[in-house]
Amino acid sequence: MRVIIVKDYDEISKKAASIIAEKIRKKPHFVLGVDVSDTIIGTYKELIQLNKKGNLDFSRVVTFNLDEYLGLAPGHPQSCRYFMDTNLLKQINIDERNIYIPNGLTKDPQLLCEKYEKSIKEVAGIDLQVLGIGTDGHIGFNEPGSSLTSRTRIKTLTEETVKNRTKVFKKSGDVPRFAITMGVGTIMESRMCMLLASGKRKAEILVKAIEGPVTASIPASMLQLHPNVIVIADKEASFNLAQKDYYIYVEKMTKQIGDAQI
Q: What residues are annotated to the active site?
């Protein structure tokens, strides 16, 4: 696991976007896993600007969304599809046929989940999965207690997740109680994972996720077992990391030899 500590949110966004952009330039038919975490909005903005300036082509890129609320239409302003369209997909030159997002209005959730897994396999897997992290350690909608080998499925949202989402819905009763999400096992099959964390609210959970024991109670901790993970965190989110000085030292050494290992 490579841990990159930067000054602030803007630097997280720029660093993450630069890594993603370089990957796409090297492999135009890149398969990118995307997330609706607010932490990643800045990264999407950076990618949009690169695309508009002609420095990054998304015409052959394939995207897979981590999740979607069960019961919400794609055009619902709080749906994951709407979020992705607004913050990235409608702003770049991606082919609509290359966009994969679960349909929240599906009549057969089980079949949809099976087809989603099949679609990922048909494109030979996800090259890079971008992730945010919840204050309870969830990734996607894999809430605490999720199986660490889980596949795309329906998950019941925790009360904390529902509470956190109430601020963007009109009232708590409007927040969906179920979501379709890639499983932890599905995420772990990505060739590379990138976890972004910003702000004081993420400091406590980030320590547990990347320096604590691997446990289903903190789904993000499973990333410790992935062979190719980059964590990009700002000073506030990384404040409690026990190995912070070492991570900073490693980055200084890495810059001397370049980022060839990324």
A: 67, 136, 138, 143
pTM: 0.94
Question: Quick check: 234 and 5 in contact, CB under 8 A?
Answer: yes
147: domain CATH number is 3.40.50.1360
Q: What domain count does the chain have?
A: 1
Residue 1 lies in a domain: no
Find the domain containing 210 and state its range: 7-257
Residue 2 lies in a domain: no
For the stretch 29-50, pLDDT in tens is 999 999 999 999 999 999 999 9
Tell whether 262 is covered by a domain: no
For 59-110, how does the pLDDT look when each residue is reduced to its tens digit (9 = 90+)? 999 999 999 999 999 999 999 999 999 999 999 999 999 999 999 999 999 9
Please provide residue 2's backbone torsions phi and psi, each rounded to the nearest 5 degrees: -105, 125
